[in-house]
Amino acid sequence: MAELALKSIVKRYGRTASPAINDLNLEVGDGEIVALLGPARSGKSTLLRLIAGLESCSQGEITIGNKMVNGIHPKDRRIGFVFSDCALYPALTVRENLTLNLRARGASRKEVDKRLAETAESFGIAPLLERRPAALSGAEKLRVNIARAIIRRPSVLLLDEPLNGLEGMAHVHMRTETKRFLVEIGLTTIIATRSGEDAMALADRIAVLDQGQIQQFGKPIAVFNNPANQFVAEALQSH
Amino acid sequence: MASERNSLDPKAPEQSGFFISTESVLVSVAALILPFLGVTFSPPPQSSVYPGLLAALTGPDLWHSAWLARLLVASGIEIALAAGIGLAFSKAASNVSRSLVRIFFLISAISLLCWLAIPSIRSLENGSVLADFCISLPIYIAAVLAHLRLVQRSVYDAISIDGASPWLTFKTVMFPLVGPALLIVVLSRLFVLFQEFGRHYGLSATIPLGCALAVLAAILIWRAFVAGVFRTSQEKVADRQPIDTVKLLDDSNINLVEVKLRSKEGTQIQMFGESAWTSLSPELAQQLQQHQVEKVAVGVRPAKVQILSEPKKTAFHGVVYSFEPLGKVGLLTIEAVDGTRVRALVDSSLTFALDRRISFWIDPNDLVLQGQATRPAPSNPKDKEPVKDIDG
Fold first, then answer.
1. C-alpha span between B104 and B143 (Å, rounded)
2. What is the ipTM of this complex?
3. What CA–CA distance (Å, rounded) separates A214 from A36?
4. Which CATH number does B245-383 carry?
5. Do A91 and B161 touch (CB under 8 A)?
6. Are residues A159 and A233 in the same domain?
7. Looking at CB atoms within 10 Å, which of A116, A184, A220, B204 has the fewest?
8. Per-residue pLDDT reduced to its tens digit, A196-234
């Protein structure tokens, strides 16, 4: 685990375009769960990609556990990333999907088997190990996706709209499951979501984002009871 | 099959018992039809020299013809494979644009039009070779590029985060993804290779044979893709999704709980593995009695689940599985003693530590009984009362 700090982050695509992230500052405590709440194109996913190293900042500093990670390759940042569209490798089984990053790091077979068994047990995906992603339901894919991010024992966990595509009871059920996972593993976590209800349910603190800037940052109940502006109030009502 | 081939080439040797099952019928039909579908070949000038296929395969011009055919045709495989594999290795694979795919299709189309419209190109000594490269090769490259475009961008991001080496990425992720496109390239070029070989060798028997082999290979590989290699029987079972009984209750938020009837009169029921009620209201008992089954699925609205501040022996028991504050109310998920998870709406100002022991109560009059029996269902959907909002 580690704390995460973003200082004066700016991200521009092209010289003339308005910045996708505009002078953003955010500090996330060790083991804290923070939700980035905002509508589409508010900069949530961009911010996660910047933290993961999938894109580089135009300006600013990203610090994970007191170590500045700007310019460090994504594989060396010790982050776990849960993609909104799951991004499981379609030709590989769940077992191979989970162990690919361990094999890529040269982990021994014994270590790989041990971690796989632990992760499969805690996420309840042991019966799914020999299946391919096409044979998984939406909820099973999400579990595997989170398990793949966790198995490498990251310092920071990033979830990009993890409950996207789940509706009704499946959505509520998986949100409950995700909340349980997150509290159990106790990692520093950032969740990007468009749903105020999901942000309220999952996070210790919520950062409401609009056009790459944080409108309000605080505990869910505090933000809910005292929204800084109409945008924040509307964002919290969104489902 | 032997008789059908003999109708095309009387000098071809008879073979029997080689193809079996449905494939043999398909291959036979294909062997008959394909040569007439635009497949042109020279008349076999030396066919009298080669009285049969076996003799032909030992003829003096065999290797020359084979090499010539390979030279004319098969190099397309190498170029397409090199392009596909090279792209799969490179980072450019994640940035294949739709325009790039279109450009290759356009090159192919323009080449075809030129070939058809300008006789001087067709009369060139190696005009057919030129046409083959200009028409078919861009199509093959476009097919590979189009497959690469199907790969989600996030898959490339996942590879980057996983830190897989280019070789591991290629072997485990990219090649299986572009494999189908490369397979199409290889198969179609092999098909043409057989035709060219037959044309240059002057052996008409190889043309239907080539067609037959290509079609057989395509069928077998297709079957392997669909049924055998890439999907296990477990996966097929997994595809069968269970019926969502919640939809039958018309409320996605309601708790679905299985209730066991403990007396034939329906006056005692067991819920969450605990017997909480010894006497039920006459109306509820009568409703349960109508079902004549041992188990009934009932609905429990989250708002009707009462959390008891003090443990009570006669109540239901469980542990806190999860607590999600949702503003004014919070969603508490309790794992009951039998493992059933039940959701309750509570005041969000309360806090619930995970795995804390908890007692809760549900008034039997708050059960939503829809008659969804877990054994032979006698219920009539028209008799159901619609379940309203969870707070209703």
1. 9
2. 0.91
3. 9
4. 2.40.50.140
5. no
6. yes
7. A184
8. 999 999 999 999 999 999 999 999 989 998 999 999 999
Same domain, A29 and A130: no
Which of A46, A137, A180, A191 is the best residue to mutate to test the B interface, defined by the most B CB atoms within 10 Å of its own CB? A180
pLDDT at B325: 84
Query: If we measure between CA atoms, which residue out of A68, A180, A85 comes closest to residue A123?
Result: A180
Residue B257, token pair as written in the block: 């709980």
Which residues lie below 8 Å from residue A117, measured CB to CB, with a gap of 6+?
A: none
Is A179 part of a structural domain of the chain?
Answer: yes
Assess if residue A83 is contained within a domain.
no
User: What is the dihedral sign for C-alpha B6, B9, B11, B15?
Assistant: negative
Which one of B95, B148, B152, B162 would you mutate to disrupt binding with A, by most A Cβ within 10 Å of its Cβ? B162
Say which residue the tokens 């009695």 belong to. Answer: B289
**Partner B contacted by A201 (CB < 8 A):** yes
B246 touches chain A (CB under 8 A): yes
Range of the domain at A107: 89-153
User: Are both A58 and A125 inside the same structural domain?
Assistant: no
Does residue A31 share a domain with residue A124?
no
- How far apart CA A115 and CA A29 sit, in angstroms, is 26
- Cβ–Cβ under 8 Å, residues A189 and A156: yes
| pLDDT value of residue B153 | 80
Q: Do A176 and B343 touch (CB under 8 A)?
A: yes
The structural domains of chain B, with segments of one domain joined by +, span 2-237, 245-383
How many domains is chain A built from? 2
The size of the A-B interface in CB pairs under 8 A is 135
CB contact under 8 A, A104 and B321: no
